[in-house]
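=== RUN LOG ===
request id: a7f3
mode: sequence -> structure
chains: 1
length: 332
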Amino acid sequence: MLILRRSDVTDVLSGRETEIIDLVADTYRLHDEGRTSLPHSTFLRFPEERHGRDRIIGLPAYRGGERPVAGMKWIASFPGNVAAGTERASAAIVLNSLVDGRPTAFVEGAVVSARRTAASAALAARELTTDDPPATVLLIGCGVISLEILRFLAAALPGLREAALYDTDPARAEAFAERCAEAAPGVKAYPVTDLTAALGRHRLISLATTAATPHLDLAACGPDTTVLHISLRDLTVGSILGAVNVVDDADHVCRERTSLDLAQQAAGNRDFVAAPLGALLRGTASLRREADRPVVFSPFGLGVLDMALAEFVREEAGRRGLGVRVDDFLTA
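=== RESULT ===
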């Protein structure tokens, strides 16, 4: 058993944004080809009121292809951590041998999760704005995920020059701007306080918040807007039904009271979903923009992406001699 700490994972992944985006794209293609196994995620919630927003999610997954991998991510989301000055999410990933099924690695998963999420968002931004790449982005929610999204957007969109930052806590947005300068030094990051004006000013918008229920519509957005709806519960049902929607997997994202799940319940169908990203990447589907309708990308966050990136980390860490090896983990 190889145990990889956060420092090991960070060492392996630092500066490899383009490779990670390519890995995520390849995994989406495999998923769209039917070469993955991806059961629904399991949500562990708690009966006590004080844990009403807390949850732990299990994501088992298998990715086939030339580099097959199987395992499971166990990720806790405790939104109250943010106010306490700690990260909302923590995670661990177990990888299993496809020869004998035995666990081969135990990987710190929060960094993997954040970077595969950001790579997915950046990939979608690139693919959905190919004809006219944006020079600015509005980041709503100033936390770890938005920081990684900016880092990966800078790699995927070389023409990106500005990032407007909005948070319900203005002081948090101010402090976040300094962190952005380190993550994406070529992008000028600055806080904004007028969300409505900012929505109309930027053609690329990223939502990464801790919202549990829809709170935002897109009426203020200008034409040709692309929205990265990463936190999945921000947009109103009307905004979803009025958009051109791209997902990672409709079966996964239209559940657990996401904005798309609520839209499905209201509409009685999923006809509002235009295409999965994997099909767009493979060329088996196409997307037609409409001047008066934003394009919204809503990824559930497929566990197969975590497995692909965790295996990438395990292989590279093995070559570098990183981590702690426990040879008697399964020994009686």
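=== NOTES ===
Residues 2-112+303-325 form a domain with the ornithine cyclodeaminase, domain 1 fold (CATH 3.30.1780.10).
The radius of gyration is 19 Å.
=== END ===
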